[in-house]
Amino acid sequence: MAESRDALVERVKARLKMRLADLLEASPTNGHTSAKERARMTEGLRQVLRALPEEYRGLELQAEEEQRLIQGVLDDIIGFGPLDALFSDPTISEVMVNGPHEIFVERQGRVERIDARFKDTAHLMAVIERMLDQVHLTVNESAPLCDASLPNGARINVIIPPLVLNGPVVTIRTKSRSWTMDEFVKVGGLSADAARFLNACVRAKVNMIVSGGTSTGKTTLVTVLSSEIAT
Question: Rounded to an integer, what distance in angstroms lies between the CA atom of residue 176 and that of residue 149?
Fold first, then answer.
């Protein structure tokens, strides 16, 4: 019985991961992969695809498929798996992972489930550990809850069993864009009168409380107000 195309692709992924492991062993990244190093690894994986044995020829990967395959392997081994593409999407303000097979995102105040998923719990935990390793933290059964700020400015909350039952739960709030008061007024975030009033309050060092529900713009407003603090 002929092997299915999906099975062939999985075997190719395994070969690529082995090659990537060799590249990492030859030149460790110490937790950080520069654009130059990633390009070198990409080329190394592309060479593996070009030299595949005859048994894989039936795949006939198109350029786009080839790039997607390589990107997926890199994301799994040195990146954050299916989360990498989400982090690079400027329309996404929050990523919510509810176990390995459910990922939700927040776009412009609306929450939606997406098709992306992790292979299994072990895959998700590997990504969690990779993210927390950036700030020298970890989670385990004796310490199953962790809150942290990542180097890119994102805020992450992780909860794992036994505190949850359906697998690791992760919430990642991406870093808000840095707005100035004038920019915020132009996009309709504040009226000109409100902006002048708040600007005067900041400069007069008036105590203020910024409150509101989830995703109502509290952090964004604080960022705007902070930009008006005299240096």
Answer: 13
